[in-house]
Amino acid sequence: MTSTPGIERRDARTDDDRQPDEELRAHLRGMWDAVAPAWSAHAAYADARGSEAGERMLKLTAPVPGDRVLEMACGPAGLGLAAASLVAPDGEVVLSDVSDEMTSIAATRAQALGLSNVRARQLDLVSIDEPDDSYDVVLCREGLMFATDPARATREIRRVLRPNGRVAIAVWGPRERNPWLGLVFDAVGAQIGKPVPPPGIPGPFSLADPDRLERLLIDAELDDVVVCEQSSPLRAASFEEWWTRTSALAGPLTKILASLPEHAKQAIRTRLHETTSAYQTPHGMEFPGVSLIVSARRPGDRAVA
Q1: Contact at 8 Å (CB) between 292 and 208?
Q2: What does the pLDDT look like over 153-185, one tens digit per residue?
Q3: Do residues 30 and 52 both lie within one domain?
Q4: What is the pTM of this model?
Q5: Same domain, 54 and 129
Q6: Which one of 74, 137, 147, 251 has the largest count of C-beta atoms within 10 Å of its C-beta?
Q7: How many domains does the chain have?
Q8: Same domain, 63 and 142
Q9: Of 61, 57, 80, which Cα lies nearest the Cα of 162?
Q10: Is residue 33 packed enough to be buried (19+ CB in 10 Å), middle (13-18) or exposed (0-12)?
Q11: Which residue did the predictor score with more confidence, 7 or 142?
C-alpha cells in the first residue's frame, strides 16, 4: 500500500467512525442484490440506455490492446464488456460490483459472449481490494453517486490506477433535468410523507453539482480533470413500460414501493400519469435527461500520447 499524502487515508478513521459506514454499506449491498434479477432481465435495455455515455467514456479513456481495465459498480456490465474488445488480445477487463448478484450477472454475460479476457470480482468502491498501480483504465458509470464516501472512493480509484492511468466516471445530472426519475421520487415522497431517497442514503442525484464532482477528483490528486454534460434522454413505448422498468431498476425506490399497500401504489401511478403528461407523445414517453461525465488522469512521468 502506498503512503502518498492525501491519498491513503483508509486507516485514519476510528472503529466508531467505521461502524455506521459499514452498516450503511451492508444495507446498500442488500438493496442492489434485491434488484439484481430485474437488472438481469433488462440488461439489453440498460446497455442501450447507457450506450452514448459509455461510448464517450471509452473515447475519453482510450483503452488500447494490452491495457488492464476495471469497471466499478458494473451492474450488468455493458460498458466493461464493450471495453473487452478494445484491449484484446493481451489486455484484461475486470467487471466489479459491490453486489454479489450483480457480479454473477456480469460474469454470466461475459461467458455467454465467449470473452476470455474478462473476469468478475465483488469490489466496493470505497475500499477497492486490488493492489496499488493495478490498472490502466478505471470506468464507473452511474455508481459513484451511490458511494457512502465518494471522496474516499475517488482516492481509491486513484490508488489502483497506474501512472498516467485514465479514469472516466458518469453520474446523473440535476434532478430537475432528469424528470424520468425526479418525478417518481416526488410522487413517492408525497405519498409517504418523507423525502426519497431518505436522509443519509446516497441517491442518484447526490453528485449532480459539476463543481463538486470536479473537486472530488482534484482533491484525489488526479490531473487533467474535465467535466462535461452528456444528453441522456429516456424513451419508452408507453407509460406502462416506463413505469415497470423504472420501478424495477431504481434500487433506492424499489424497496420502498414493495413495502407500500396497493392503494398507495395506485395513488402514485395516478399522480405520475398527471405529472408526466407533458412527456407523452404519439410515439410513447419521451423524457429529457442529462448525465455528467468527468475524466481525469493519474500523474505520471510522461503524458499519454
Answers
A1: yes
A2: 999 999 999 999 999 999 999 999 999 999 999
A3: yes
A4: 0.89
A5: yes
A6: 74
A7: 2
A8: yes
A9: 61
A10: middle
A11: 142
Residue 108: give its domain's CATH number.
Answer: 3.40.50.150
Q: What are the beta bridge partners of residue 292?
A: 171, 229
Q: What would the mean pLDDT of 247-266 be, rounded to a whole number? A: 87
Comparing CA positions, the residue from 165, 160, 168 lying closest to residue 58 is 168
In a domain, 269, yes or no: yes
Partners of 291 in the β-ladder = 172, 230
Integer Rg of the chain from CA: 19
Q: What angle do CA 60, 167, 120 make, to 5 degrees?
A: 110
Instruction: Domain of residue 35: give its range.
Output: 12-173+208-233+290-305
Among 29-43, 82-96, 108-122, 231-245, the minimum mean pLDDT is found in: 29-43
Residues 26 and 52 in one domain: yes
Burial of 117 (0-12, 13-18, 19+ CB in 10 A): middle
3 state SS of 229? strand
